Structures are given as C-alpha cells and as structure tokens.
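Technical appendix A lists one of the benchmark inputs used to test multi-chain prediction within the project. The record comprises two sequence entries:
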Amino acid sequence: KNLLQNMNHKCRCFCFIYFYFFADLLPASDGDIKTMTFLQEVVDILLAYIVESFDRETKVIDFHYPNELLQMNNWELQDEPATLDDILISCRATLKYAIKTAHPRYFNQLSTGLDMVGLAADWLTSTANTNMFTYEVAPVFVLLEYVTLKKMREIIGWSDGRGDGIFSPGGAISNMYAMLLARFKMFPEVKEKGMSSVPRLVAFTSEHVAFSCCHLPLLFLTSSSELNDVFLFCSGKLIPADLERRILEAKQKGFVPFFVSATAGTTVYGAFDPLIAISDICRKYNIWMHVDGAWGGSLLMSRRHRWKLDGVERANSVTWNPHKMMSVPLQCSALLVREEGLMQNCNQMHACYLFQQDKHYDLSYDTGDKALQCGRHVDIFKLWLMWRAKGTIGFEAQIDKCLELSEYLYNKIKDREGYEMVFDGKPQHTNVCFWYLPPGIRYMEDKEEKKKHLHKVAPVIKARMMEYGTTMVSYQPQGDKVNFFRMVISNPAATFEDIDFLIEEIERLGQDL
Amino acid sequence: KNLLQNMNHKCRCFCFIYFYFFADLLPASDGDIKTMTFLQEVVDILLAYIVESFDRETKVIDFHYPNELLQMNNWELQDEPATLDDILISCRATLKYAIKTAHPRYFNQLSTGLDMVGLAADWLTSTANTNMFTYEVAPVFVLLEYVTLKKMREIIGWSDGRGDGIFSPGGAISNMYAMLLARFKMFPEVKEKGMSSVPRLVAFTSEHVAFSCCHLPLLFLTSSSELNDVFLFCSGKLIPADLERRILEAKQKGFVPFFVSATAGTTVYGAFDPLIAISDICRKYNIWMHVDGAWGGSLLMSRRHRWKLDGVERANSVTWNPHKMMSVPLQCSALLVREEGLMQNCNQMHACYLFQQDKHYDLSYDTGDKALQCGRHVDIFKLWLMWRAKGTIGFEAQIDKCLELSEYLYNKIKDREGYEMVFDGKPQHTNVCFWYLPPGIRYMEDKEEKKKHLHKVAPVIKARMMEYGTTMVSYQPQGDKVNFFRMVISNPAATFEDIDFLIEEIERLGQDL
C-alpha cells in the first residue's frame, strides 16, 4: 500500500495535466510527456483498483439502482471537450460502481476472476490495436493463433494437432460457425444456390443447453418449435437411445438431421453428455458431431477430469471458451474443426480488397476468409501469454483447484440442515445447484405453499448480497423447479474459506425469510 | 524521453521480479507489490512502444516472412511455467514485430491510428473484465451504452433519440442483426415456425459493398447467386431506378423483397448511396431499409459532410462503426434501430439462468436478450470516454481533417504525371483510388501489355514499403480494373506532410518498375 501511495505521489508531482485536454496528447507535437503522464495516472488508478479488488474487506459491488446511478455522476455526452482531469474523474467513478470481478467472493458468472498475466496481455493487445484478418496487419498474433489452436487440437486428441480453427467473439458465434460448416459439408451447393436448395434441416441437442444454442435456430435452421420437438432432456443430458429414436422420427417426417451438438458442461448443471455413444450414432447416420465445450472444454487440460470428455476426439468440431474456466479475460472463445480446408471453402468470398492473391508472403496465414466476420478482435494474446506464464500444468492446477472447491461445497451442504440439492449425485463440473430453506419454511407441510415461498428466497438473498456487497452467486428457476442457487467456481482467487463464507452469508441473509 | 528513462530506471530498482512466476502474483497472499511491479514493467514497455509508434523515424513495421518470424523467438507453448522475466521478453518481442497502427504513416486499413484516451479506456475495460449482458454485472457500462446509443440516434435524426440499438463485435454482425430484425418484422412467425414458414426472401444492395454483406446470404437468406442476379452496380452506387426495376423482377419471380442495404461509404470507393430516393422505394414496396454506414456513418458528426447521408433518418436500421473513422480502438460497432422493442421481441429466448424476471432492479437495463450473442464484450467505454474527452466538436474536427487530407491527396495527384484516377470526380469519403504508372510503362502503346505490367506495380511497391517499413497503403483489383492503390485516411496522426511523403515514397519505390 505504501508503495502504491509513493507511486501515486510521484505522479501527482507532475500534476500539470489537470488543465490539459485530449488535444495536448499524442499525436500533438511534444505530446510525449503529457501522454505518458496521463496514461500513468490512469494506470495508477487501475493498479489501486486491482489491489483493492482482491481484498476480501472490499465490497464486491457498490450497488445502486439504475435511476440512482444515473444521478451519481454526470454521464451525459457534451459538445465541448472535457479536461483530462475530468477524464480521470470519470475513470474513478466508473470503477467505483463497477463490479469487482477479480474479488475472491465473486461467483456470479461462468467467467470470474482476473488473471494478472492475462490482464497485462490485454493491455498490450489494446496498445497494438490491430485486427486479425491478415498476416500483414497482425503478423505475430496470427502466428500465435496458429500455434495455440494447434496445441488445443493436440489436447483434443486430433493426430499431430491437425485440423483448423478460429477464435470468435464468443460461444454463440463459435457454435454458429460450426453449424454453418456442418450444413456446408452436407450440402456444399448451399453456398451457391442458397437455403432453398437444401431440404428441411434439423439439429439435435440436449435441453439444458446454453443460451446460444437456443438462439441458433432463429438464425438459419428449421423452426425453433420443430427443434423443440426433438429436444432431448434428462437431467440435462443427451440420452443416446433417445437421440437415435428422435433421429429416426425426424427422418420419417422428411427432415434431414445434419447436426448434433453434444454439450460438455451444461450451463446450469455442468453436465457432460456421453460423447462416445453420441459419436457412434452420428457416424451411423452421417451427422456432424459438434461438442459445445464452451464451459466444460477446459477440463481437457486436467489429467484428473478429462475423462468426462472421452470421445471428444471423434467430434467434427468443438467450441471451447478459455474465457470461462481458464480465466482468460473476456472475450476468448475458440472453435476447433477436425477437417482441414473446410472453413476456407465454406466462407471464402475472395473480398479482393482484403485478400489479394499476389501478396509477397505465404497467404495461408491470412485467416480472414475463414469466418463470416471481416475484422476480428485480437483475442489470442491473452491466452497465449497466460499459457506461457502458467504452462499447461499451471492451467491444470487452476482447474483442478476449482473442482476441488466445488466438491468441498457439495460435501459441505449435501447433508446440512436447510439445504436441498437440485440434482442427485456429485456435480461433474463446478456447478453446485441447491436450495436454501430458511427456518421459517423448512417445516412447512403444505408442499405448494412451501414451494411458493421457496421460490422467493433466492432472489431476496441475492438482492441482499448485492446491497451488502459481500458476495455474489447466481440463481434461477428451471422447468418446474423453483428458484435455486447455481454456484459455479471459475475464480482462481477463491479458497475453502470463501466457500465457508458463502454458506454463512446465505444463512445470515436468509435467516428471517 | 528522459522522463521515460527515469521511470524505467525507477522500476528496475525493484527488479526482484525476474526470478518470480505467475504464482507469486495476486491472488497470492502478499502478491500486491509483486503484481504492481510486474504490471508497471509491462506498462513501461507499452509507454515506450506508444511514444516510438508516433515517431516518423520509426518503421511502421519490422516485417518478416511467416517462416522467418516463427524462428525469431520461441513462440511454442510449454508444459512448464515461464518466469515473469520471460513474460516481459515475450511482450517486447511481440511488440517488436507488431505493426505500429498508431504510426502517422500507417494507412493500410479503414481502422488506423491510436487514440490515447481510447487506449486508456480500453485498459480500464480490460481491468473491469466484465460482460454486457445484464445491469447486474456491468451497471455503469450498461448505462453508458444506453446514453451513447441515444446520442447516436439523435445524431441520426430520430426524434428525441428514440429507438433501440446495441454494440456488436463488428460490422458483419451488426448487419446480420439488422437482417434478422427485418425478417422478423415482416414474418414474426419465423421465430416459432422457422425458415420453412416464410417465402423465398431476397435482399438488395450495391455491388461494391463491404465484405460482410457478401457473406450474409450464406447465412440465412436465399442463395448468393440469386442475390448476384439482383445486385446493382454503377460506380459502387445503388441507382434508384435500377433498384425499383429489380424489385419488380424479383416479385415476378416469386421472391419476397424484404431488405435493402444502402451503403453509406463503400469500402473501396467510399461512395454514398442516395438514401432519400432509396427510402422512397423502400416505403413504396414496404421493404426494410438498412443503411450500412460502418465506414461512412461517422460523417454524421460533421456539419460539413453529413449531407452525404441525407435521408438516413428514414432508415429502419443503421450500422455505424466508431472503430473506423472515429479511431475508437478495435472493436466498436453499433447497430441503431428505429423501432423500439423490436430487438427484444425478435431475439428474446428468456434464458432464465441469465434474465431472471424477479430481480430487484429495473429489468429494461438487461440488454442480453436483444442479440444472438449471450456474452458481449464491453466496447462502449472507449467510445464514451473519447466522446467525453473530445466532445462532439472534437470528433467533428478529427473527421473533417481526414477528409481535408484526402482532398489534398486527390488534388495533388489528379493531374500529376504518372497517375490515373480509378473513378471520376472528387471522392465522397477519404478513399482515393489511383494507379501509379512508373516511367517504364507510362508510354507503352500496347494497351493489353500496359495493363499486364500495371497490374504488377502496386503489389511490388507495397511489398517494398513493408520491407523498408516506411509507410503502408492498401491495393487491390476490382472487376476489370487491374491492381490500384486504395488510399484511405482515418488516422488522426496524419498530416499534409505525410501525404507528400506517401507520394514521394510510391515514386521512389516504383521508379525502376
């Protein structure tokens, strides 16, 4: 803390920036010193915020309702420029009301925590401010994407890491790209002749899938209600026998099954579909097998847990989001594809203003033609630098620790008074889903009444958590199950004590309900 | 420079980090000082890189061919962790071979330059490391998106800034979202009943459109060849009378025209479609009018140039990428939509694990249901903070200056010996397209032979530019036009002298061809 104050003090010494404006910064001539001073001031604010974020005495969030927050600062945009001092004030205000995602007791999302090497890499990425579409404009980043995707394919188990892949803005887009590839693979004429040239397609997935899969039918498939017809559901898992029956049904109705998305780590329960059995069916009926491992794919890096994805090497494509379980700063999502060349063939449009064929270097490094997007944000450097810093074994240790913590939580509450688990058995991932029953409703006899009350418990406890700012965990209903807590652990800063704290806090805040 | 050295020196004093590893950083207990030291070292590297990037004596790029670059550093990923010192070395190596996008003579893409306030904002965004889907996890950023989108809609000319919108990962995705909205608006049943419930749709756009529009048909429309049939082309502009004729033709063939994408600033020529006339036709035939202003939308901020988009207020949706002409760091693309509520209705899936309806705050701020993506990167803060720092008038001045520079370039070369313009008349945007004819081919009589030679000129000059690292500008062929230079100016660091330099450099490097 002293050091920080010293550094802050040092920077205050050249506090002449207070009366300057953006126009005094680079590219202004003689803007060097002012620019460095300004950026250093910002960095000092950020460093203080980072140190504070890891401190358990700090609030996870200084929560205010939208209308209040609108009043707490002047957020409006003006015609006239503000001073650099005002810019620093805006930075401080923004961080003051931000959620501290690095906080060891922040468990609210699948992406939590803040990795220091990942952060450094993201600062560098912003400074490089370029685009992934060609080797010409991102030589190093394009090579690092190549190196990293190859490594990820090796880990999946494709021989010599052969295949293809791309980083996309998130799991939804990665899954969408996989569906496009599947459609193109089965009906290459779709590229020239369009949707009307292909029969009515149908895709299969487990019901408890992430947000993205629900949205894809909207985009370009058959109808969502038809998809619902063939959704399969059992504790959030695809059951192979059911899958086969549904495929046959769909065929009989005149649909063409073209895509099965098996989920490795469902969003709510963290369940893993049985990949080997599913791949047998996919092979039998010649259907593209996709593994949506946005959440669970990272378990491939753990020798202790990778058996949960046994069979993944049989998939045609895999989505794997390092920004979730591996704590890479947002956004970082990869789509890995087994067949080489397919992505290029599927998406290539030869936009000649970008992908000139007479360039003076090896064009196979121009990746822009592999995706629907033209510009792509540089998401690779964070992952690459973190991998460098931790090594594969560092990621493994981090992932194993999160799973250990969730097992600890599960063991702690499974027989504890006032708790009920939402699904039976040990969680496969770090998702622990449970109800907390406050003493007041614990012994209610009227089951419907009890359910009605229980439904309101999690929202109230969550709202109180946010008001106190002590911790944050997600809740939700699911089907006929009333609101339950969905605890997920991806935060490398969390410890056994934080799990204990969470339980105490839920009980403290729910005591009177 | 002295200051920088002092600061570097200061940090070297606590150079004890050299033997530490990532595991010594936060969240390690007592990791505060080590973390701050490490991050400060990275920042020092970045500050030095920034100052260097703006220096015209520095190379734009230290270019190496892919195979060479692979050898120049150990980029491979290992099982074991590297030291923090190695991490710093990796950062330096990455920047050494990176393209200096901030360099005043970097003209290669539509997105060039590096804004210091935008950069500071991006560093803060990385540090906050959150997701845009709910107010709960991004309270300030969600409010700032709300404030900024409203301001952008006011500038478009929608009364009181009413309407809707979202920031997406880029122009291709923004345009895709617009198409989905158009389809849903005309056929709301598509959401429930799928593609097979709607007739064969057809969309219209000018031929010289950006990369993204060519890709969209692949995704979910009718075939691309059918689309090609109805593509319109004349100097890259939609001609209203042609458009109407094509619409009638398509209807006669049984297609349903549902979407016209007028381009405000084409990628190659920078041409603006006549929006008022196009909107008349769209109204007459009840077709969704989209304006793809990814490149040209920013001209709305210039009182001198916004007439080029007259009629934009009649559009149903507008794509506008502040990461291009406004120099906001990548990525920053907005889709603005005139009708309120439509986005939510079109995309809403009620993923209950994210968008609980019993939360304790105003749910209208949960934006995640407005898009296909689930997680969305925080792209708003860069734009908001830059707007704050420059004011609307600051953006205006920056844009006006780029257009002035391009006019200067156009005037300088239009009658200069050895130059030919690719299209007639003054460019509407900053795109100046031209051929440079080296003395050796300038007076060739055989036209075919001359063309063949000319085609090879731009690639060679460009390759030499990259090898010398002095400047970078794009080239391409188009239709029957052989390779020409496409100069675009979006870099706020560029001056009249840099334009002079570019011309001298082209002549110097092309002299012997």
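The domain at 391-510 of chain A is CATH 3.90.1150.170 (Aspartate Aminotransferase, domain 1). The first strand of chain A starts at residue 106 and ends at 107. Comparable benchmark entries are summarised in Table A2.
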